[in-house]
Amino acid sequence: LISHDAKRLGFLPHDMDTTELQPLLKKILKEGLVKSGSNLHDRRRNLMAISNELNEVFFRYPFSVPPFFALVTRGLGLLEGIALSGDPNFDIFKASYPYTSR
User: Fold this and answer.
1) Which residues contact 12 (CB under 8 A, 6 or more apart)?
2) Are 3 and 18 within 8 A, CB to CB?
3) pLDDT grade, residue 39 (50/70/90)?
4) Crossing angle (nearest 10°) for helices 67-86 and 92-100
5) Are 80 and 89 in contact (CB under 8 A)?
6) What is the Cα–Cα distance from 41 to 91, expressed in whole angstroms?
7) In whole angstroms, what is the distance from residue 91 CA to residue 49 CA?
8) Measured distance CA(19)–CA(28) in Å, rounded
9) % of the chain surpassing 90 pLDDT
């Protein structure tokens, strides 16, 4: 599913065989996102580990970042920074959950 979505969203070429890539992505995302639970500090630490592991995968496979994703990511980073300056305990995951769960 992850590799299918990556192709559909333009992160990977549509004709790429993702058989080798699927278990790598599943392992990285499951260990990084699911195991951290709701603890904000654990999630932040795991996010850095996920980022490092994904960077290695991105260099080995023909990933590209679509412009829309880069803009959304920059916007979320900016908004999170503003929120954290007002509330150091702000949790972007909790704040966005009602919208992402739909």
Assistant:
1) 3, 6, 18, 21, 61, 62, 63, 64
2) yes
3) low
4) 130
5) no
6) 10
7) 18
8) 15
9) 9
